[in-house]
Write a structure and sequence with these properties.
alpha/beta; Protein-Tyrosine Phosphatase, Chain A; single chain; 221 residues
């Protein structure tokens, strides 16, 4: 049975935005990487006050067309989908969260590498990554980034599990599977099939110099 996850993230009380957390703790520099659900209209001031200089919206273009980001058009904003255009429903990709995450890793290797490249190449300051709830796509991107930065797998899994505390139960799909065990299984698959985060991302198109940039911007001196 999973233990209560450790509080490695700093919870951010951003208006109009759920599940916002600064990943700074231990190896990770405070303010370098932030995760959240979709920001609302009232969130913009808080985002930039936190030092964020790049916002990566991980949703499909079909999602952003229907529900545009309030930051759309801002110089800090980029829309980089984790999913392929044809993968419009996560629930069609597997019957459990670990199965879905395996499918996203297998099908989205190039897209995920492009997101990590955008983190590497972002302007000086913090990077915010978000999807809709900040759970699945955001969870995978954060896991890859933290793994590249050398954060132990148990800490990555514990941080992922915190998401279950910040989402409304009635509106959260597969809430009971947002656990450390789910992320541990995902990281085990990544390691066993691809050799880990770094070989996976390099094979997807992330450059070796970008791996170094991700590490340098995320890790505390």
């Amino acid at each position: 049975m999973d233990q209560q996850p450790a509080e490695r993230s700093m919870i951010l009380d951003w208006p109009g935005c759920q599940n916002a957390r600064d990943l700074g703790s231990g190896r990770i520099r405070r303010g370098a990487l932030v995760r959240s659900g979709r920001p609302g209209r009232d969130t913009t001031e808080a985002i930039f006050a936190h030092g964020v200089t790049r916002v990566l919206d991980l949703r499909l273009a079909t999602e952003t067309d229907v529900d545009p980001s309030p930051l759309s058009g801002h110089r800090a904003y980029r829309n980089l989908s984790v999913l392929r255009p044809e993968d419009t429903l996560l629930e069609a990709m597997g019957d459990t969260l670990p199965a879905i995450y395996r499918a996203v890793l297998d099908r989205g290797q190039v897209n995920l590498a492009a997101v990590l490249s955008a983190i590497a190449q972002a302007p000086e300051g913090g990077v915010l990554v978000h999807c809709h709830q900040g759970k699945d796509r955001t969870g995978l991107v954060v896991a890859l980034a933290l793994a590249l930065a050398g954060v132990p797998e148990q800490e990555i899994a514990a941080d992922y599990a915190l998401t279950a505390r910040f989402l409304p139960p009635a509106q959260t799909w597969m809430l009971d599977q947002i656990t450390a065990a789910t992320m541990r299984a995902t990281l085990a698959y990544l390691r066993e099939r691809y050799g880990g985060a770094e070989p996976y991302l390099l094979d997807g198109g992330l450059g070796p110099e970008e791996v170094a940039l991700v590490r340098a911007r995320l890790t505390a001196p």
